[in-house]
Amino acid sequence: MAHCFCGRGVRYRECCGRLHRGEARAGTAEELMRSRFSAFARQDEAYLLRSWHPATRPERVEFAAGTRWVRLEIVRTEDGGPEDERGTVEFRAHYAAGFETGELHEVSRFARHDGEWVYVRGKVTRSGDG
């Protein structure tokens, strides 16, 4: 299989696939962010819901028809390390939809819940580049 969607340059099976299959847990907020991007690229709703904080988790995840997530760019991280309880990851998620391309620019908040990193919420700061 090809390299993982998260951009680390490792095969999916050995990278985010381990988290998606439940064989490993994210050690940092950034690792969880990368695995969630890969889950969006694969439309893995079950993993996305599992990795979402129960206080903010939706009932379902809506996937935009015809949208392909093609590249993740981590802009910055704040806290979110192995010893932290909270963390922030700012990223740009690049996509293609038909002949259009764009990006989702978000600052996401993560926290530990029952000892595991989970996504809490994000603030989209800009979307679309043409």
From TrEMBL:
Q: What is the lineage of its organism?
A: Bacteria, Bacillati, Actinomycetota, Actinomycetes, Streptosporangiales
In this chain the YchJ-like middle NTF2-like domain maps to: 28-122
Could you tell me the superkingdom of the organism this chain comes from?
Answer: Bacteria
Protein's recorded name: YchJ-like middle NTF2-like domain-containing protein
Give the organism, scientific name.
Answer: Actinomadura litoris
Position of the signal peptide: none
